[in-house]
Write a structure and sequence with these properties.
Elements: H1 6-15, H2 18-23, H3 29-46, E1 56-60, H4 67-74, E2 78-83, H5 86-99, E3 104-107, E4 119-124, H6 136-146, E5 147-156, E6 158-159, H7 165-187, E7 199-200, H8 202-211, E8 214-220, E9 223-228
Parallel strand pairs: 1-2, 1-4, 2-3, 4-5, 6-7
Antiparallel strand pairs: 5-9, 8-9
Amino acid sequence: MKSWGEDLWEAKVNAHGDAGVIFGTGHRLSSVHRQTRTEMERVDRLLLKRIPAGSSILDAGVGPMARFSIELARRGYLPIGLDISTTTLQRAKAATARAGIAVDFVHGDLVALDLGRTVDGIFCMETIFHVPAHLALEVFQGFHRHLRAGGFALIKFAILERQTVYFSLCQALYLAAFAILRPVLRFVGRESFRTTVVRYSTDELMDIFERTGFELVERDGDMFLLAARRKVVSTK
């Protein structure tokens, strides 16, 4: 089966800087570093207080800076950095080498996850945003298969409880701007990419968790801490 999204993220990481891959065109690395510090406070509080140092944690969608894997390693954990893009993994390896940090990197696809081992924790910052909604069950089935009994998964989602006129207008404006500006950017030698952000309501997420054997342990806004409480034979 062809991996999902590999061509897109390979092209994007080669066209944009690290901040552009993580946040989008026009962002600076200072914004990335600031967000990393803020989000790690939540990761410490939600996930790491429940998993002892020395545990293995899958960083699903490690990104070109390996920023969360580096922070996990500094706290004494054993991160496994997964990404679909080989170029991203090369950059991530360079970033960890500069930081003097050891991370186990794996080239793989969230939609067909196969590490050949289980892990004590799973961390997925924003990667799930870009997986098409119809593939969400496959992703969470893979997470469930790879999480050891007693382990936890911390996932950040894009939340939209209901469709509003304001949100619809913003979406229309984004699509119009993309259509107008893309050829202009190409004319000046720049490339732009449309990476859809999939948004879920809380009810939709709870249904996904139930179907794939997860239980919600704690929630902090858009971050959901999950535990695998039962084995699932089939979700069909």
